[in-house]
Amino acid sequence: MEIVYTFCASWSLAGRKEGTKHLIGITHKPPIIIDPISFTYAFPTTSPQNPHCVWIFPQHIKDYHAADNNQTFIRFANLETIVLDISISSFNNQIARTSMLHMKFSQKMRKIENQIPQNSMFFPPSNYVAESFFGYRSALPNNTQPTDHSEK
């Protein structure tokens, strides 16, 4: 039931907020999980009821810093920039809350998956690889290929 609760509570914005409250206890300007599969998160810069609220997706931030008038300058990975009416300390707090949500959600998923390892959707076993390393140029002496020690 724990995994059902986690996912069913996450479909609406209200459910996502409730999920955040359940995981990290945040109710004011809570970060939310947008997509648990790709670990996409977002956080509001003000109350979500405020018409000037901007939702930030932290995985797209390249860098940010304090700007004039208690604002924050943000540069995204695509090099677009924005200056928002949020202090750098509040922005850092929202980043930290989002990181905490990510950590707690990941821990909960690992715990659930440890109970039913055959359904490891979020954290596949680390000994599975997407492709063979054979065929790549080796950095070993004389371009020798590494030995495959995986279980067959």
Description:
The protein has helices spanning 2-8, 13-24, 88-115; strands spanning 32-35, 40-44, 55-56, 61-67, 71-76, 81-84. The chain has 152 residues and is of the alpha+beta class. It has a domain at 2-60 and 88-120. It has a three-stranded antiparallel beta sheet with strand order 1-2-3. A three-stranded antiparallel beta sheet has the order 4-5-6, with no helix packed on it.
Output the strand order for the largest sheet.
1-2-3
User: What structural category do the secondary elements indicate?
Assistant: alpha+beta
- N/C terminus separation: 35 Å
Main sheet? 3 strands, antiparallel
The geometry reads as flat
Taking all residues together, what is the mean pLDDT? Answer: 80
Strand content: 15-25%
Quaternary state of the chains: single chain
Could you give a short description of this structure?
The chain has 3 helices and 6 strands; from the N terminus they run ααββββββα.
List keywords for this structure.
ComK; Competence protein ComK; 6 strands; alpha+beta; single chain; 152 residues
Describe the secondary-structure layout.
Elements: H1 2-8, H2 13-24, E1 32-35, E2 40-44, E3 55-56, E4 61-67, E5 71-76, E6 81-84, H3 88-115
Antiparallel strand pairs: 1-2, 2-3, 4-5, 5-6
